[in-house]
Amino acid sequence: MSANPLAGVRVLDLSSVVFGPLASQVLADYGAEVIKIEPPGGDSTRHTGPAAEPGMAAVFLGCNRNKKSVVLDLKQGAAQKALHALLATADVFMHSMRPQKLAGLGLEPEQLRARYPRLVYAGLHGFGEDGPYAGMPAYDDVIQGMSGLADLMQRQTGEARYLPTIAADKTCALVAAHAILAALFARERSGQGCFVEIPMFETMVGFNLVEHFYGMHFTPALSGAGYPRVMAPWRKPYKTLDGHVCMMPYTDAHWRRFFGAVGQPELAQDARFADQASRTRHIAELLEILSQHVQRHDTRHWLQTCERLEIPAAPVVRMDDLPQDPHLAATGFFASVPDPAMGELRFPRPSVRFDGAQSPITIPPRLGQHTHELLRAAGLSDADIAEL
Fold this sequence. Notes:
Layout: E1 10-13, H1 19-29, E2 33-38, H2 58-62, E3 67-71, H3 77-87, E4 92-95, H4 109-115, E5 120-125, H5 140-147, H6 149-157, H7 167-190, E6 195-199, H8 200-212, H9 228-231, E7 238-239, E8 244-247, H10 252-261, H11 276-281, H12 283-294, H13 299-309, E9 313-315, H14 326-330, E10 334-339, E11 343-348, H15 371-377, H16 382-387
Parallel strand pairs: 1-2, 1-4, 2-3, 4-5, 5-6
Antiparallel strand pairs: 7-8, 8-9, 10-11
């Protein structure tokens, strides 16, 4: 199989910031031709973070590789006509605009689906359109709070916090990418496109409740929401004499070996810790005991001990050190791409391989870099393009 299984698929992406652009970057990594439609000011992330060139800032580089850029001011009728010229050639149209903004641009799903029946139309929304929150603005922090993530942090740490990553945007982006792929697969069988709706709120609630719906699966509920093991305050990297270690005894055998190694083999028979169900009920006590033992030795001791006991363990790695990680180096995970203006740029590669092959990487596009080329190919004249 080619490293570009979506070769020949054309995606028009009107989204901005991270949710939509990361979703379309996944499609681009798989070989789709992704055309980023930007307003004259460009995606806001072009100016977020350090930059070697204006309009090519770090956050933009992180979710726009392998794409092309066309600038269209969709408030102009001529620009809307140009967009339709591109839509006539597209397999996927995706946007992250609030639904109430679409009508004025002639981009409502019903209109485009009727005009382009093979089109996969993906709406990346904050909330499902049939609920009372439909059309409300949604950003990562808002969705983390509404979906339960901040509550989980409060339960574990005593303080309501957001995760220090844009977890909602990135998680929903991956869901959007696989939903679009499913729609493309269905179209190959039926010949018909469809409207795919990816709401952030519902997506993140489902994501959080995979383990945390817990006893609420049952009627009547057997417990409230929340999986105790992952909410326990002691579930964190354990402090050693010289740093921290991430270790996770999990099975009965793991815990027997651990208790034996620390000189308390009788704890393996303790009713609180004897099996998985009991350990889950008493997880806070168990992890506190683990932590007390770990802090008595250095990190190297615990890495060697866990290797001997076949207990999963690893050091805490600083993000700055990841490019030097021996495994990532051996697998070629980081790619360097030269650019005449910005010099050498580094990118994490897509993690997926097809028959061992990795997708090539191209630098994210300058604003409007492909406008003339792609609009000419779509049938617009030089005069039409000049009018834009």
